[in-house]
Amino acid sequence: MRPKNSGTKQLFDNPILEKLSRTHIAVPVTVFFVSGAVLGWYAFTYTNLSNGLIGLLFGVGAITFTFIEYWVHRSVYHIDPTTEARAKFQYIAHGVHHEYPKDKTRLAMPPVLAIVVAVTLFSLFFVLMGEAAYAFFPGFIWGYASYLLVHYAVHAYAPPKNFLKHLWINHAVHHYKDGNAVFGV
User: Fold this and answer.
1) Fewest 10 Å CB contacts: which of 66, 78, 81, 166?
2) CB 148 within 8 A of CB 25
3) Distance (Å, rounded) from C-alpha 84 to C-alpha 91?
4) Cα–Cα distance, 149 to 25 (Å, whole number)
5) First-to-last CA distance in the chain?
6) pTM of the model as a whole
7) What is the DSSP letter of 137?
8) In terms of C-beta density within 10 A (0-12 exposed, 13-18 middle, 19 or more buried), how is residue 6 classed?
9) How many CB atoms lie within 10 A of CB 110?
């Protein structure tokens, strides 16, 4: 499928689902930066974790997000569409983004779904880590919010004339040259 440089595509006949499948980038970025700040405040205020350990867990959470993002992008969003159901899932979850990479309303996971995923992940991390999740998860979701900002920038703006230009070039390779390479943003 050849990417289109402009436009969008309707995914759902139901107007409510269609509206819920789109978001302005400021919504999830704000939700996750604020949520991370609140959870981080909770870690400093109500847990028995030292300040240094909170900072370390925050950093590990942010780094962990980058590896999870790469793995999900490569293994989930780019699954082989061997069945009709897999093909439909792949297209709705990520294929439409490859067909319309300049559609600014589909550069982030819709907030309702993102919040469900975030609550599920926090619950999992809490089961695995206990109160350390209050320090780890803010780093993880700040990593996600930061990723969203970078991903939005590489799709919405021309590349800068500085060292950050390589981010645009690498992501352009993924979208316009080889969709099975350069999965990280």
Assistant:
1) 166
2) yes
3) 10
4) 8
5) 21
6) 0.91
7) H
8) exposed
9) 18
DSSP 15-62: HHHHHHT---THHHHHHHHHHHHHHHHHHHHHSS--HHHHHHHHHHHH
**Are the C-beta atoms of 18 and 11 separated by less than 8 Å?**
yes
Distance between CA atoms of 102 and 100, rounded to whole angstroms?
6
Nearest CA among 155, 171, 76, 82 for reference residue 117? 76
**Amino acid, single-letter form, for residue 16:** I
Give the single-character DSSP code of 2. P
Q: How confident is the model at residue 125 (pLDDT cuts 50, 70, 90)?
A: very high
Q: What is the pLDDT of residue 175?
A: 77
Backbone φ/ψ region at 158: left (φ over 0), alpha (ψ -120 to 50), beta? beta
Tell me which residue of 128, 139, 131 sits closest to 43, measured CA to CA: 131
